[in-house]
Amino acid sequence: MKVSFTETVLRDANQSLIATRLPYDKFEKILPTMDKAHYYSVECWGGAVFDSCLRYLNEDPWERLRKIKDRMPNTKLQMLLRGQNLLGYKHYPDDVVRKFIEKSVSNGIDIIRVFDALNDTRNLKVSIDEALKRGAIVSGAISYTTSPVHTLEAFAKLAKELESMGVASICIKDMAGVMSPSEGYDLVKAIKETVKLPVVVHTHCTTGLAYLTYLKSIEAGADIIDTATSCFSGGTSQPATETFCYALKNLGYEVDLDEKVLKEVNDHFMPIRDEYIKSGQLDPKVLTTDTNALNYKIPGGMLSNLVAQLKAQNAMDKFEQVLLETPEVRKDLGYPPLVTPMSQMVGVQATANVISGQRYSNISKELKAYIRGEYGKAPAPIDKELMKKALGIEKPITGRYAESLEPLFEKTKATLGDTAHNDEDVLSYILFPPVAEKFFANRQAREEKIVKYSISQIK
Ligand code: CO
Q1: Domain map (residue ranges) of the chain
Q2: pLDDT tier at 59, thresholds 50, 70, 90
Q3: Residue 375 reports pLDDT greater than 70
Q4: Which residue, among 128, 117, 122, 60, has the nearest Cα to 90 in the 3D structure?
Q5: Which of 117-126, 132-141, 334-343, 408-417 is least confident?
Q6: What is the mean pLDDT of the chain?
Q7: What's the CA-to-centroid distance between 420 and ligand 1, angstroms?
């Protein structure tokens, strides 16, 4: 039996521990070494990386990708894509989705892991189709959650559907780190019995279950696990690469990784990790274990948001009530997995329901859009009373929301004119308009400064 590894230090570990604030120049030097580790893939793009590059790091995310590709030509580069949401927070029209995927692949991405927060495959259709057309390897991810409708049968059926859409592997994506060892075992087994594809397991150490869950998942036949170099592992990040390499070899599994290279990689990131702890950007608290998510069945990140909301409204005495109301709201909404943006919507609504003392007297714009069907199909039917309250006589949409969106790419390209240097710039702008605008202005100022400087040198 062989187990392969996806290294997450450049994306998920970076995102989970230091809010994706790792600039390119901090890891450039180690890329040629990482290229020799024999990872199955390196996850380095997508998720929050794109947004963070433009918003906080003053980096062109496309340029970052090309530079990584140049220095790691032998390793498959992987990105995480939120289906029809791409790397933003709303649904984009199909022409934008297609262009974005075309450019991701031509700039260096080999593997696209694609997921939808509601597991609505209609939101994955266009991105999977275009990725296959561009020759990318597509991994179809299942957003893992527990509820009366999220059964083994339902997940296996979803895996089957993803297989028929042409994906090369199925990924179980447990973003909250709440999948237990036995749940992992049973789920991998159920998927393996249903489809003929490799299974990837992705989880976080948040609740402390991850190491056990990976091992049981591997016993059930999981082929690939996501891990982070040890100094960037644990807590809200993934389990350690070196630890699993050691333990699995020890158990007799075939592992391609080169330990000497893994050590060099970790030696590079260790002082960087220490620097972030010193500056306070890496809070040691996120490196420890937090079992609250297991007690409350609420992801850790959502729990801290609830506390912040209640504190801001001077209502911490209502904490227990809000914790009881949260699963009720989730049930009314048809059991959406508690990931972005659903976790925020459910949390805000539960808090409002408790504080006002009147359930759903106030429903947010976002939640109304969800109830209308703009995010996709809810896993279970939405409560009828709530639906009436939110939409009145308006009918929910039945089709795929993106079909109602006008094409946007060519129009935006024409409007931007010279401000956009290429199609990649146009896409950056469509995803994050004010942020990209500011980035373009900074870039322009930088270029003018360089020109001025070289002219002064000639003089
Ligand atoms: Co993750």
Answers
A1: 4-284, 292-402, 409-458
A2: very high
A3: yes
A4: 117
A5: 334-343
A6: 95
A7: 32
**Ligand 1 mean position, distance from CA 321 (Å):** 29
Sign of the Cα torsion 155, 233, 108, 35 reads: negative
On the question of a common fold for 4-284 and 292-402, the answer reads: no
Is the distance from CB of 179 to CB of 207 less than 8 angstroms? no
The helix/strand/coil state of 200 is: strand
pLDDT higher than threshold 70 for residue 459: no
Q: Helix/strand/coil (H, E, C) string of 16-29?
A: HHHCCCCCHHHCHH
Q: Class of the 292-402 domain? A: mainly alpha
The CA distance from 86 to 299, in Å, is 23
Task: Yes or no: say if 427 and 410 are a contact pair by the CB < 8 Å rule.
Answer: no
CA of 238 to the centre of ligand 1 (A): 8
Question: 271: exposed, middle or buried (C-beta count within 10 Å: 0-12, 13-18, 19+)?
Answer: exposed
Q: Sorting pLDDT into bands at 50, 70 and 90, what band is 456? A: confident
Asked if 175 and 145 count as a contact pair (C-beta separation under 8 A), the reply is no
Domain 4-284: give its CATH code: 3.20.20.70
Q: What are phi and psi of 367, to 5 degrees?
A: -65, -35
Which residue type, as a one-letter code, is found at position 91?
A: H
Distance in angstroms (rounded) separating the CA atoms of residues 454 and 139 = 47
Tell me how far the alpha carbon of residue 442 lies from the centroid of ligand 1, in angstroms: 31
